[in-house]
UniProtKB/TrEMBL annotation:
The protein's name in its UniProt record: Aminotransferase
E.C. numbers: 2.6.1.-
GO biological process: L-phenylalanine biosynthetic process from chorismate via phenylpyruvate
Entry cofactors: pyridoxal 5'-phosphate
Cross-referenced CDD domains: AAT_like
Assembly and binders: Homodimer.
Gene: tyrB_2
Organism: Granulosicoccus antarcticus IMCC3135
Length: 395
Protein backbone atom coordinates (compact mmCIF):
# COMPACT_ATOMS: atom_id res chain seq x y z
CA UNK A 1 0.00 0.00 0.00
CA UNK A 2 2.01 2.97 1.25
CA UNK A 3 5.19 2.00 -0.61
CA UNK A 4 3.33 2.88 -3.81
CA UNK A 5 2.83 6.50 -2.79
CA UNK A 6 5.04 9.10 -4.48
CA UNK A 7 6.73 11.80 -2.41
CA UNK A 8 4.28 14.56 -1.42
CA UNK A 9 4.47 17.86 -3.24
CA UNK A 10 5.86 20.69 -1.14
CA UNK A 11 3.54 23.61 -0.37
CA UNK A 12 5.44 26.86 -0.92
CA UNK A 13 3.69 28.81 1.82
CA UNK A 14 3.50 26.10 4.49
CA UNK A 15 7.11 25.05 3.74
CA UNK A 16 8.30 28.59 4.36
CA UNK A 17 6.28 28.76 7.59
CA UNK A 18 8.02 25.61 8.86
CA UNK A 19 11.47 26.90 7.83
CA UNK A 20 10.84 30.18 9.67
CA UNK A 21 9.80 28.36 12.84
CA UNK A 22 12.95 26.22 12.69
CA UNK A 23 15.25 29.26 12.28
CA UNK A 24 16.82 30.06 15.67
CA UNK A 25 17.93 33.60 14.81
CA UNK A 26 16.21 36.14 17.06
CA UNK A 27 16.21 38.95 14.52
CA UNK A 28 14.48 36.93 11.78
CA UNK A 29 11.53 38.47 9.92
CA UNK A 30 8.49 36.55 8.67
CA UNK A 31 6.88 38.09 5.58
CA UNK A 32 5.50 34.71 4.48
CA UNK A 33 2.20 33.14 5.46
CA UNK A 34 -0.86 35.40 5.28
CA UNK A 35 -1.77 36.00 8.88
CA UNK A 36 -2.31 39.46 10.34
CA UNK A 37 0.28 40.66 12.84
CA UNK A 38 0.21 43.59 15.23
CA UNK A 39 3.13 45.91 15.92
CA UNK A 40 4.56 43.37 18.39
CA UNK A 41 4.55 40.73 15.65
CA UNK A 42 1.70 38.82 17.32
CA UNK A 43 -1.49 37.47 15.75
CA UNK A 44 -3.91 38.24 18.59
CA UNK A 45 -7.34 36.78 19.24
CA UNK A 46 -9.64 39.72 18.47
CA UNK A 47 -11.32 41.37 21.49
CA UNK A 48 -14.87 40.68 20.30
CA UNK A 49 -13.97 37.04 19.65
CA UNK A 50 -12.59 36.63 23.19
CA UNK A 51 -15.75 38.14 24.65
CA UNK A 52 -18.04 36.08 22.43
CA UNK A 53 -16.15 32.94 23.44
CA UNK A 54 -16.79 33.76 27.10
CA UNK A 55 -20.47 34.19 26.34
CA UNK A 56 -20.52 30.93 24.40
CA UNK A 57 -18.85 29.08 27.24
CA UNK A 58 -21.49 30.32 29.67
CA UNK A 59 -24.54 29.76 27.51
CA UNK A 60 -23.88 26.73 25.34
CA UNK A 61 -25.84 23.81 26.75
CA UNK A 62 -25.18 21.09 24.19
CA UNK A 63 -22.49 19.82 21.86
CA UNK A 64 -24.95 17.82 19.82
CA UNK A 65 -24.73 17.88 16.01
CA UNK A 66 -25.81 20.96 14.09
CA UNK A 67 -26.24 19.97 10.40
CA UNK A 68 -24.09 19.44 7.28
CA UNK A 69 -24.81 23.01 6.19
CA UNK A 70 -24.15 24.33 9.70
CA UNK A 71 -26.03 27.07 11.49
CA UNK A 72 -28.68 29.02 9.56
CA UNK A 73 -28.09 32.09 11.74
CA UNK A 74 -24.36 32.04 10.97
CA UNK A 75 -25.01 31.60 7.25
CA UNK A 76 -27.55 34.45 7.17
CA UNK A 77 -25.13 36.74 8.98
CA UNK A 78 -22.36 36.01 6.45
CA UNK A 79 -24.76 36.44 3.53
CA UNK A 80 -25.70 39.89 4.91
CA UNK A 81 -22.02 40.76 5.36
CA UNK A 82 -21.17 39.80 1.80
CA UNK A 83 -24.27 41.00 -0.08
CA UNK A 84 -25.34 43.88 2.19
CA UNK A 85 -27.86 43.93 5.02
CA UNK A 86 -30.63 45.28 2.77
CA UNK A 87 -29.97 43.00 -0.22
CA UNK A 88 -32.65 40.78 -1.76
CA UNK A 89 -31.35 37.39 -0.69
CA UNK A 90 -34.29 35.29 -1.81
CA UNK A 91 -32.15 33.32 -4.32
CA UNK A 92 -29.02 33.23 -2.14
CA UNK A 93 -28.16 30.29 0.13
CA UNK A 94 -25.08 29.39 2.16
CA UNK A 95 -23.51 26.49 3.98
CA UNK A 96 -21.08 26.90 6.86
CA UNK A 97 -17.70 25.66 5.70
CA UNK A 98 -14.34 24.54 7.02
CA UNK A 99 -12.62 27.88 6.38
CA UNK A 100 -12.44 29.58 3.01
CA UNK A 101 -10.55 26.61 1.56
CA UNK A 102 -13.33 24.24 2.62
CA UNK A 103 -15.82 26.53 0.89
CA UNK A 104 -13.70 26.53 -2.29
CA UNK A 105 -13.58 22.75 -2.33
CA UNK A 106 -17.26 21.99 -1.64
CA UNK A 107 -18.37 24.64 -4.12
CA UNK A 108 -16.00 23.17 -6.72
CA UNK A 109 -17.56 19.74 -6.10
CA UNK A 110 -21.05 21.19 -6.41
CA UNK A 111 -20.30 23.00 -9.68
CA UNK A 112 -18.80 19.78 -11.05
CA UNK A 113 -22.20 18.14 -10.56
CA UNK A 114 -23.91 21.04 -12.34
CA UNK A 115 -21.53 21.32 -15.30
CA UNK A 116 -19.25 18.26 -15.50
CA UNK A 117 -17.60 19.50 -18.70
CA UNK A 118 -16.65 22.94 -17.47
CA UNK A 119 -12.98 23.88 -17.01
CA UNK A 120 -11.76 26.39 -14.44
CA UNK A 121 -9.78 29.54 -15.25
CA UNK A 122 -7.41 30.87 -12.59
CA UNK A 123 -5.58 34.18 -12.54
CA UNK A 124 -1.85 34.00 -13.27
CA UNK A 125 -0.62 34.31 -10.57
CA UNK A 126 -3.11 33.10 -7.99
CA UNK A 127 -3.03 31.67 -4.48
CA UNK A 128 -0.95 28.49 -5.02
CA UNK A 129 -3.47 26.28 -3.21
CA UNK A 130 -6.17 27.11 -5.78
CA UNK A 131 -4.48 24.69 -8.15
CA UNK A 132 -4.57 21.47 -6.03
CA UNK A 133 -7.96 22.41 -4.58
CA UNK A 134 -9.55 22.65 -8.01
CA UNK A 135 -7.64 19.70 -9.43
CA UNK A 136 -8.81 17.56 -6.51
CA UNK A 137 -12.38 18.34 -7.57
CA UNK A 138 -11.54 16.95 -11.02
CA UNK A 139 -11.16 20.10 -13.08
CA UNK A 140 -8.91 20.85 -16.02
CA UNK A 141 -7.32 24.23 -15.31
CA UNK A 142 -6.38 27.18 -17.49
CA UNK A 143 -4.85 30.49 -16.52
CA UNK A 144 -5.55 34.04 -17.58
CA UNK A 145 -2.87 36.77 -17.37
CA UNK A 146 -3.59 39.04 -14.44
CA UNK A 147 -0.65 41.02 -13.17
CA UNK A 148 1.46 43.64 -14.90
CA UNK A 149 4.69 43.61 -12.86
CA UNK A 150 5.94 46.77 -14.60
CA UNK A 151 3.10 48.90 -13.27
CA UNK A 152 2.01 46.82 -10.27
CA UNK A 153 -1.55 46.86 -11.59
CA UNK A 154 -3.97 44.50 -13.31
CA UNK A 155 -3.32 43.55 -16.92
CA UNK A 156 -6.97 43.99 -17.78
CA UNK A 157 -6.52 43.78 -21.56
CA UNK A 158 -4.59 40.50 -21.28
CA UNK A 159 -7.15 39.13 -18.84
CA UNK A 160 -10.10 39.95 -21.12
CA UNK A 161 -8.36 38.65 -24.21
CA UNK A 162 -7.53 35.37 -22.54
CA UNK A 163 -10.95 34.86 -20.94
CA UNK A 164 -12.45 35.58 -24.34
CA UNK A 165 -11.07 32.17 -25.38
CA UNK A 166 -12.83 30.24 -22.59
CA UNK A 167 -15.53 27.91 -23.85
CA UNK A 168 -19.15 28.70 -22.97
CA UNK A 169 -20.03 27.35 -19.55
CA UNK A 170 -16.49 27.48 -18.16
CA UNK A 171 -15.90 28.70 -14.62
CA UNK A 172 -13.76 31.75 -13.84
CA UNK A 173 -12.18 32.00 -10.42
CA UNK A 174 -11.98 35.65 -9.36
CA UNK A 175 -10.56 37.26 -6.23
CA UNK A 176 -13.37 39.43 -4.84
CA UNK A 177 -10.87 41.86 -3.27
CA UNK A 178 -7.25 42.04 -2.07
CA UNK A 179 -5.81 39.77 -4.75
CA UNK A 180 -3.54 37.06 -3.37
CA UNK A 181 -0.57 37.17 -4.12
CA UNK A 182 -0.32 40.52 -5.95
CA UNK A 183 -2.46 43.04 -4.02
CA UNK A 184 -3.55 44.39 -7.43
CA UNK A 185 -7.33 44.69 -7.65
CA UNK A 186 -9.65 45.40 -10.56
CA UNK A 187 -11.21 48.88 -10.64
CA UNK A 188 -15.01 49.03 -10.85
CA UNK A 189 -14.63 49.93 -14.56
CA UNK A 190 -12.54 46.78 -15.01
CA UNK A 191 -15.17 44.73 -13.19
CA UNK A 192 -17.83 46.08 -15.56
CA UNK A 193 -15.81 44.82 -18.53
CA UNK A 194 -15.19 41.43 -16.92
CA UNK A 195 -18.86 41.03 -16.00
CA UNK A 196 -19.93 41.90 -19.56
CA UNK A 197 -17.60 39.20 -20.88
CA UNK A 198 -18.92 36.65 -18.38
CA UNK A 199 -22.47 37.52 -19.40
CA UNK A 200 -21.85 37.54 -23.16
CA UNK A 201 -19.87 34.28 -23.12
CA UNK A 202 -21.90 32.42 -20.49
CA UNK A 203 -18.98 32.05 -18.08
CA UNK A 204 -19.66 31.23 -14.45
CA UNK A 205 -18.17 33.40 -11.66
CA UNK A 206 -16.56 31.60 -8.73
CA UNK A 207 -15.47 34.30 -6.28
CA UNK A 208 -12.87 33.80 -3.58
CA UNK A 209 -13.53 36.39 -0.86
CA UNK A 210 -10.90 35.71 1.77
CA UNK A 211 -9.92 39.27 2.77
CA UNK A 212 -13.14 41.27 3.11
CA UNK A 213 -12.31 44.25 5.34
CA UNK A 214 -8.57 44.26 4.64
CA UNK A 215 -8.63 46.44 1.50
CA UNK A 216 -10.82 49.56 1.49
CA UNK A 217 -13.25 48.52 4.24
CA UNK A 218 -15.82 45.85 5.03
CA UNK A 219 -18.56 47.27 2.80
CA UNK A 220 -16.24 48.61 0.08
CA UNK A 221 -14.48 45.25 -0.31
CA UNK A 222 -17.81 43.59 -1.14
CA UNK A 223 -18.56 46.04 -3.96
CA UNK A 224 -17.40 43.69 -6.74
CA UNK A 225 -19.41 40.72 -5.43
CA UNK A 226 -22.49 42.90 -5.00
CA UNK A 227 -22.08 44.31 -8.49
CA UNK A 228 -21.77 40.80 -9.95
CA UNK A 229 -24.85 39.69 -8.01
CA UNK A 230 -26.80 42.61 -9.52
CA UNK A 231 -25.67 41.90 -13.09
CA UNK A 232 -25.39 38.13 -13.37
CA UNK A 233 -27.95 35.37 -12.90
CA UNK A 234 -25.81 32.97 -10.89
CA UNK A 235 -22.57 32.89 -8.93
CA UNK A 236 -20.82 31.29 -5.99
CA UNK A 237 -18.68 32.89 -3.29
CA UNK A 238 -16.19 31.21 -0.95
CA UNK A 239 -16.12 33.54 2.06
CA UNK A 240 -13.53 33.21 4.80
CA UNK A 241 -13.61 34.33 8.44
CA UNK A 242 -9.94 33.42 8.91
CA UNK A 243 -8.57 36.90 8.33
CA UNK A 244 -11.28 39.43 9.14
CA UNK A 245 -12.25 37.66 12.38
CA UNK A 246 -8.76 36.29 13.04
CA UNK A 247 -10.16 32.75 13.32
CA UNK A 248 -7.51 31.00 11.21
CA UNK A 249 -7.18 27.73 13.13
CA UNK A 250 -10.89 27.50 13.97
CA UNK A 251 -11.66 26.99 10.26
CA UNK A 252 -14.69 29.21 9.68
CA UNK A 253 -16.13 30.20 6.33
CA UNK A 254 -19.20 30.04 4.15
CA UNK A 255 -19.92 28.45 0.79
CA UNK A 256 -22.47 30.79 -0.77
CA UNK A 257 -24.50 30.32 -3.94
CA UNK A 258 -26.86 32.57 -5.85
CA UNK A 259 -29.23 30.79 -8.24
CA UNK A 260 -31.75 31.99 -10.83
CA UNK A 261 -34.80 31.05 -8.80
CA UNK A 262 -35.61 30.33 -5.17
CA UNK A 263 -36.44 26.72 -6.00
CA UNK A 264 -33.09 26.21 -7.76
CA UNK A 265 -31.27 27.87 -4.86
CA UNK A 266 -32.92 25.58 -2.33
CA UNK A 267 -32.18 22.49 -4.45
CA UNK A 268 -28.56 23.53 -4.95
CA UNK A 269 -28.14 24.05 -1.20
CA UNK A 270 -29.54 20.57 -0.63
CA UNK A 271 -26.95 19.17 -3.05
CA UNK A 272 -24.25 21.18 -1.30
CA UNK A 273 -25.34 19.60 1.97
CA UNK A 274 -24.90 16.23 0.28
CA UNK A 275 -21.37 17.15 -0.87
CA UNK A 276 -20.49 18.11 2.70
CA UNK A 277 -22.09 15.00 4.22
CA UNK A 278 -20.06 12.75 1.91
CA UNK A 279 -16.82 14.61 2.69
CA UNK A 280 -16.67 15.37 6.42
CA UNK A 281 -20.32 15.09 7.42
CA UNK A 282 -20.60 18.40 9.28
CA UNK A 283 -18.51 21.49 9.96
CA UNK A 284 -16.99 22.29 13.37
CA UNK A 285 -19.11 24.59 15.50
CA UNK A 286 -16.96 26.64 17.86
CA UNK A 287 -15.60 29.32 15.51
CA UNK A 288 -18.84 29.74 13.58
CA UNK A 289 -20.88 29.93 16.77
CA UNK A 290 -18.49 32.57 18.12
CA UNK A 291 -18.77 34.49 14.85
CA UNK A 292 -22.56 34.31 15.03
CA UNK A 293 -22.43 35.91 18.49
CA UNK A 294 -20.09 38.68 17.31
CA UNK A 295 -22.22 39.44 14.27
CA UNK A 296 -25.55 39.42 16.13
CA UNK A 297 -24.60 41.34 19.30
CA UNK A 298 -24.59 45.10 18.63
CA UNK A 299 -21.79 45.94 21.08
CA UNK A 300 -19.53 43.06 20.02
CA UNK A 301 -20.21 43.81 16.38
CA UNK A 302 -19.20 47.45 16.81
CA UNK A 303 -16.05 46.48 18.70
CA UNK A 304 -15.10 43.90 16.05
CA UNK A 305 -15.56 46.43 13.25
CA UNK A 306 -13.45 48.96 15.12
CA UNK A 307 -10.60 46.49 15.65
CA UNK A 308 -10.80 45.29 12.05
CA UNK A 309 -10.58 48.88 10.83
CA UNK A 310 -7.53 49.47 13.04
CA UNK A 311 -5.89 46.41 11.47
CA UNK A 312 -6.71 47.62 7.97
CA UNK A 313 -5.37 51.09 8.62
CA UNK A 314 -2.18 49.62 10.08
CA UNK A 315 -1.60 47.70 6.85
CA UNK A 316 -2.28 50.84 4.78
CA UNK A 317 0.27 52.81 6.77
CA UNK A 318 2.84 49.98 6.60
CA UNK A 319 2.44 49.98 2.82
CA UNK A 320 3.09 53.71 2.71
CA UNK A 321 6.11 53.53 5.02
CA UNK A 322 7.65 50.58 3.14
CA UNK A 323 7.17 52.13 -0.26
CA UNK A 324 8.63 55.40 1.05
CA UNK A 325 11.69 53.59 2.51
CA UNK A 326 12.24 51.77 -0.81
CA UNK A 327 11.81 55.01 -2.74
CA UNK A 328 14.53 56.67 -0.64
CA UNK A 329 16.92 53.71 -0.68
CA UNK A 330 16.54 52.94 -4.40
CA UNK A 331 16.25 56.59 -5.36
CA UNK A 332 13.45 55.58 -7.72
CA UNK A 333 9.69 55.29 -7.95
CA UNK A 334 9.75 51.65 -8.92
CA UNK A 335 8.22 50.49 -5.62
CA UNK A 336 5.51 53.14 -5.38
CA UNK A 337 2.93 50.54 -6.45
CA UNK A 338 3.16 48.96 -2.98
CA UNK A 339 1.38 51.97 -1.45
CA UNK A 340 -1.41 51.73 -4.04
CA UNK A 341 -2.17 48.03 -3.69
CA UNK A 342 -4.78 46.50 -1.42
CA UNK A 343 -4.97 44.04 1.41
CA UNK A 344 -2.32 41.86 2.87
CA UNK A 345 0.03 41.13 -0.03
CA UNK A 346 2.32 42.70 -2.58
CA UNK A 347 5.01 41.21 -4.75
CA UNK A 348 8.64 42.20 -4.90
CA UNK A 349 10.63 41.65 -8.11
CA UNK A 350 13.03 39.12 -6.55
CA UNK A 351 14.31 35.91 -8.10
CA UNK A 352 14.98 32.66 -6.24
CA UNK A 353 18.67 33.40 -5.66
CA UNK A 354 17.83 36.83 -4.25
CA UNK A 355 15.13 35.38 -2.00
CA UNK A 356 17.55 32.72 -0.74
CA UNK A 357 20.11 35.40 0.00
CA UNK A 358 17.61 37.48 1.94
CA UNK A 359 16.72 34.42 4.00
CA UNK A 360 20.29 33.16 4.54
CA UNK A 361 22.10 36.47 5.07
CA UNK A 362 19.37 38.60 6.66
CA UNK A 363 16.80 36.14 8.14
CA UNK A 364 14.06 37.64 5.94
CA UNK A 365 11.45 35.08 4.84
CA UNK A 366 9.50 35.85 1.66
CA UNK A 367 7.40 33.40 -0.41
CA UNK A 368 9.12 32.02 -3.53
CA UNK A 369 7.15 34.21 -5.93
CA UNK A 370 8.29 37.39 -4.13
CA UNK A 371 5.02 37.76 -2.20
CA UNK A 372 5.29 39.65 1.08
CA UNK A 373 2.79 39.78 3.92
CA UNK A 374 2.43 43.51 4.47
CA UNK A 375 1.23 43.00 8.06
CA UNK A 376 4.63 41.47 8.88
CA UNK A 377 6.60 44.59 7.85
CA UNK A 378 8.64 45.98 10.75
CA UNK A 379 7.35 49.44 11.76
CA UNK A 380 10.72 50.47 13.14
CA UNK A 381 12.95 48.57 10.74
CA UNK A 382 11.82 49.78 7.32
CA UNK A 383 15.15 51.34 6.39
CA UNK A 384 17.12 48.16 7.18
CA UNK A 385 14.60 46.05 5.27
CA UNK A 386 14.66 48.38 2.26
CA UNK A 387 18.45 48.33 2.42
CA UNK A 388 18.61 44.50 2.47
CA UNK A 389 16.21 44.26 -0.47
CA UNK A 390 17.97 46.88 -2.56
CA UNK A 391 21.35 45.29 -1.74
CA UNK A 392 20.33 41.84 -3.02
CA UNK A 393 18.64 43.42 -6.03
CA UNK A 394 21.88 45.19 -6.96
CA UNK A 395 24.10 42.10 -6.62
C1 LIG B 1 -1.80 32.55 2.57
O1 LIG B 1 -2.05 32.79 1.39
O2 LIG B 1 -0.67 32.73 3.07
C2 LIG B 1 -2.89 32.07 3.49
O3 LIG B 1 -4.09 31.98 2.78
C3 LIG B 1 -2.53 30.84 4.23
C4 LIG B 1 -2.54 29.60 3.39
O4 LIG B 1 -3.25 28.66 3.77
O5 LIG B 1 -1.83 29.52 2.38
Amino acid sequence: MFEALPEPKADAILGLMAAFRADTRTDKLDLGVGVYKDSAGKTPVMRAIKNAEKKLLETQDTKSYVAPIGSAAFCNAIIAQVFGSDADTSCIRAAQSVGGSGALRVLADLLKQGRPDADIWLSDPSWPNHVPLMQAAGYALHTYPYYDAQTGSVNIEGMLESLGKAKRGDIVLLHGCCHNPTGADLSMDDWARVVKLLKDNDLFPFIDLAYQGFGDGLEQDAAAVRYMASELPELVVAASCSKNLGLYRERVGAAILMAKTEAEATRALGRLGGVIRSNYSMPPDHGANTTEIVLSDAALNADWKEELETMRLRMVSLRQAFSEALRKRSNSERFDYIAEQKGMFSRLPLNTAQLDKLRDDHGIYIVGDGRINVAGLPESGMEQLADAICTVLAE
